[in-house]
Amino acid sequence: MLEIQDLHVYYGQIHALKGISLQVGEGEIVALLGNNGAGKTTTLRTLSGLLRPRAGQVLLDGTPIHGLPPHTVVQRGIAHSPEGRKVFNRLTVLENLEMGAYLRKESDIGEDLEQMFALFPRLRERRQQTAGTLSGGEQQMLAIGRALMARPRLLLLDEPSMGLAPLLVEQIFDTVADINRRGTTILLVEQNASIALSVAQRAYVLETGAIVLEGLASDLVQNPEVQRAYLGESV
């Protein structure tokens, strides 16, 4: 479905991504792990068209998309739930969700709204509340729901556990697994390696802009380097 080939991305003179290559198959959850500054968010921003690579390719179903503007990337079937949630603070929950469907041609999005409220019942209760007054967990639900309103085939999900209490993290990741079971492919960026590997089928580990490990999530959980660096275990 998605293929990244030898991708190089710069911020000015800073070489942020140093020739990374990865694949995401239809129906998978693939995790992208790494510490702060590893290049995880840069990868997602490049996939969604917010950054342009200096070299390499991004292919969706074999077709290059790395030169496309963000709105066209959304039209091709990729939606991005960004790090830090970035909801529209002055808009209501309902208006935020409607903004997620902005590029769709269908005039009736009521069925999709009902699906979001079924996934996130708290959002139904808060539908007329301004997004900036929601809790962190509620804003994360809203950010994911807004991205799903574009009906993406591939969801780019950046740090959904950031700043959330453990119970909320479990709820969010239960929902992520549910979204995948309903047919949406997910590329997941997450610092909480333990929970990311519990829902993903495969994973890549980034360090300073390069992929240093890749494999089945079940294998990486047992990898001594991953255990020591990302799972907080001494081996």
Précis, in short:
The protein contains ten helices and ten strands.
**Computed Rg:** 17 Å
CATH superfamily membership, which one?
P-loop containing nucleotide triphosphate hydrolases
For the record, the CATH class is Alpha Beta
Query: Biggest sheet: strands side by side, in what order?
Result: 6-7-8-3-9-10
CATH topology: Rossmann fold
Strand content: 25-35%
Instruction: Report the strand count.
Output: 10
Helix/strand/pairing category: alpha/beta
Shape type: globular
Largest sheet: 6 strands, mixed
Reported CATH architecture: 3-Layer(aba) Sandwich
Termini separation (Å)? 36 Å
Low-confidence runs of at least 5 consecutive residues: none
Distinctive features:
235 residues; alpha/beta; Rossmann fold; 6-stranded mixed sheet; 4-stranded antiparallel sheet; 10 helices; globular
Describe this structure in words.
A hairpin with a 2-residue loop joins strand 4 and strand 5. The chain has helices at residues 40-47, 70-75, 93-100, 110-119, 121-125, 136-148, 166-181, 193-199, 217-221, 224-229, and strands spanning 2-11, 14-24, 29-33, 55-60, 63-64, 78-81, 154-158, 185-189, 202-207, 210-216. Helix content is 36%, strand content 26%. It has a 6-stranded mixed beta sheet with strand order 6-7-8-3-9-10, with helices on both faces. A 4-stranded antiparallel beta sheet has the order 2-1-4-5, with helices on one face. With 235 residues, it is an alpha/beta fold.
